[in-house]
């Protein structure tokens, strides 16, 4: 069947069907891109209706936003090597090392907090250089190297802190992390937001970020294109460790103490947020905004379950389940993206 409109070309049933199909494709694409946002809204609505007196309160919101800045920054640290196609399992160990250095140098030995911060960041650079050296000079799998590094750092932290929690960290740090607020929200949240935005800009709008992504998509092709793949991967591991060290500084400022074991609990949520975030905003691609939203989706879920009386182990079940689902969804998104690119 064919119809004709005034001053227009004939319109067929095929054209109409094609338009409907195109509209459906756009709707599905938008739903996938903002799936994690929709999921966050649903989780907040469900737990808010079940526990309105505790879940939907200003204090709960402020607590969640401020306390999760550490996880946001640590996830950003992990995203950098993941974008280059490498795993960094040492990020939690670097966080613990940085936090313990703050405790030992500042609280125990009275060193100026700003000098301590510089030393912690330098320690992160050194750890990243060592990780990159073992991976790229000796050809060892980054999964193995960073797993070993993280384990070594966990032991070193116990030794540094004598297996005890160190309190009394300078208020010069705690004030500028969790005590002082902007728009009623701890400054830690805004630091995490700025780092997320900065990483987004770097990966999406700079030549270095595009090279990093290109290396992650195909190292052989990248070498043929003239990219210095070894240098780029090494820089990614250094940046990851440095940013993880910053997360450790924020953690020390958030808690006001250095705990030699609590940092280990960050590893699973960090990977869960990174992979879950890659299923949204830019599906099939590791991206900071997707991970940022994923962090708060995960913490909203665990906080809501805790308020409903769930046991503490439920958090591990929730994060573990989210990681498995996120990895499967991420792989599906990447395969779909490859198929669509190949069909163009």
UniProtKB/TrEMBL annotation:
Where it sits in the cell: the answer is:
Cell membrane
**Topology in the lipid bilayer:** Multi-pass membrane protein
Q: Which GO terms describe its molecular function?
A: transmembrane transporter activity
| KW Cell membrane (keyword) present | yes
Q: Name one GO cellular component term.
A: plasma membrane
Membrane recorded as keyword: yes
Q: What InterPro entries does the database record attribute to this sequence? A: ABC_transp_permease
Report which superkingdom the organism of origin falls in.
Answer: Bacteria
Q: Give the region (Disordered) as residue ranges.
A: 1-22
Compositional bias annotation for Polar residues = 1-10
Keyword tags: Cell membrane, Membrane, Transmembrane, Transmembrane helix
Q: Where are the transmembrane segments?
A: 30-50, 62-82, 113-136, 143-161, 181-203, 232-253, 265-282, 289-311
Identify this protein by name. Sugar ABC transporter permease
Q: Which organism is it from?
A: Pseudonocardia sulfidoxydans NBRC 16205
Could you read off the lineage of the organism from its UniProt record? Bacteria, Bacillati, Actinomycetota, Actinomycetes, Pseudonocardiales
């Amino acid at each position: 069947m064919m119809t004709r409109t005034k001053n227009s070309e004939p319109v067929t049933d095929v054209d109409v069907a094609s338009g409907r199909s195109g509209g459906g494709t756009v709707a599905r694409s938008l739903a996938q891109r903002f799936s994690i946002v929709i999921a966050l809204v649903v989780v907040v609505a469900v737990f808010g209706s079940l526990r309105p007196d505790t879940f939907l309160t200003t204090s709960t919101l402020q607590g969640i936003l401020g306390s999760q800045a550490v996880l946001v920054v640590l996830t950003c640290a992990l995203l950098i090597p993941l974008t280059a196609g490498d795993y960094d399992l040492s990020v939690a160990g670097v966080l613990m090392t940085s936090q313990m250095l703050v405790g030992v140098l500042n609280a125990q030995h009275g060193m100026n907090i700003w000098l301590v911060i510089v030393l912690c960041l330098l320690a992160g650079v050194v750890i990243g250089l060592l990780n990159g050296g073992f991976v790229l000079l000796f050809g060892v799998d980054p999964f193995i190297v960073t797993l070993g590094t993280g384990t070594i750092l966990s032991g070193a932290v116990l030794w540094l802190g004598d297996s005890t929690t160190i309190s009394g960290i300078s208020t010069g740090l705690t004030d500028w992390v969790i005590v002082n607020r902007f728009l009623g929200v701890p400054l830690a949240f805004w630091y995490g937001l700025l780092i997320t935005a900065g990483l987004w800009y770097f990966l999406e709008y700079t030549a270095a970020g595009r090279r990093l992504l290109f290396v992650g998509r195909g190292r052989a092709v990248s070498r043929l294109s003239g990219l210095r793949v070894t240098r780029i991967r090494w820089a990614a591991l250094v940046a990851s460790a440095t940013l993880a060290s910053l997360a450790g500084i924020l953690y020390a400022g958030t808690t006001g103490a250095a705990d030699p074991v609590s940092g280990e609990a960050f590893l699973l949520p960090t990977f869960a947020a990174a992979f879950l975030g890659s299923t949204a905003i830019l599906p099939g691609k590791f991206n900071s905004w997707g991970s940022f939203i994923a962090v708060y989706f995960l913490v909203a879920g665990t906080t809501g379950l805790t308020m409903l009386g769930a046991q503490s182990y439920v958090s591990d079940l929730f994060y573990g389940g989210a990681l498995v689902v996120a990895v499967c969804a991420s792989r599906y998104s990447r395969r779909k993206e490859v198929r669509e690119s190949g069909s163009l």
